[in-house]
Amino acid sequence: MELSKRIRRPKWTDARLLVGAVLVVIAIAATYLLINAANATTRVWASANPLVPGQVLSPEDLTVAEVNLADIGDKYLSAETELPKDSSVRAVIAEGELLPASVLAPLAELDGRIVAIDVAGSVPAVVDTGSLVDVWAQPEANGLDDEGAEPEQIVSSAPVSNISRDVGSFGVGDGARIEVFVASAELSAVLGALDGSSVLSVVGAPADAGPSADTGPESAAGTEPAAPSESAPSESAAAGGDR
Fold first, then answer.
1. Residue 48 near residue 63, CB atoms below 8 Å
2. CA-based, 20 to 30 A from 212: which of 100, 106, 143, 163?
């Protein structure tokens, strides 16, 4: 009689059986939720081409990227967010980089403007949209005996907004127009050099050690220094924010 009582089957009302079943269900549910969380993606904006301060952003400049950002997703601009009108970026965003929310800014709040510079000679091949360049000014000599003043750097690490190269029939560069974003503190020097009394040159500038805005993993694009290209005296005025 004692033996039959010991080996009888457990009932569903047995507390130990119920607790064990609950623990199994909880473990399965937790594993499912953990896997879903690990595979969850967020739709955020990424740059379809290099973005430069002073450039008015349009939907064509952006593309949607689905990425797993874990707990840092709020640092980037959600693709569900409509792009504000007349907005630009505070720092260079390379093509394919995610767009940090902190780098977006109204065009009117940017500390600088885009200026067009006409270059008579060729521009280094490494210089392109999104590159950083230094601008140098060489005052023109007043006569044969006037050696002129030493060239002076008037802009440091200016992002290139646009560049148009004109190539002759023999492949020799006949000139180019380069549009750069110039900080307000350097704007007067650039406009003064555009009065026709100076020869302007541009050289590729190295990329910054880090982004100039809180851009997370993104960094500003740049190029290695190259030989300067001289330009003819230019009468170009500062261009507006539109490309």
1. yes
2. 163
pLDDT value, residue 71: 62
What is the average pLDDT score of the chain? Answer: 74
Please check whether residue 56 is in contact with residue 8, taking contact to mean a CB–CB distance below 8 angstroms. no
pTM of the model: 0.63
* Unique residue bearing structure tokens 């199994």: 24
Q: Which residues contact 69 (CB under 8 A, 6 or more apart)?
A: 42, 44, 75, 76
Do 130 and 159 meet the contact criterion of CB atoms below 8 Å apart? yes
pLDDT tens, position by position, 190-231: 888 888 778 888 888 887 644 444 444 433 333 333 334 444
Distance CA 145, CA 27 (A): 89
| 3-class DSSP assignment, residue 112 | strand
Tell which residue, 49, 134, 113, has the closest CA to residue 242: 113
The overall longest dimension of the chain from CA atoms, in Å, is: 128
Q: CA nearest 227: which of 199, 204, 194, 197?
A: 204
For range 227-236, the mean pLDDT = 40
Q: Six-digit token pair at 179?
A: 């549009």
Q: What φ, ψ does residue 189 adopt, rounded to 5°?
A: -65, -40
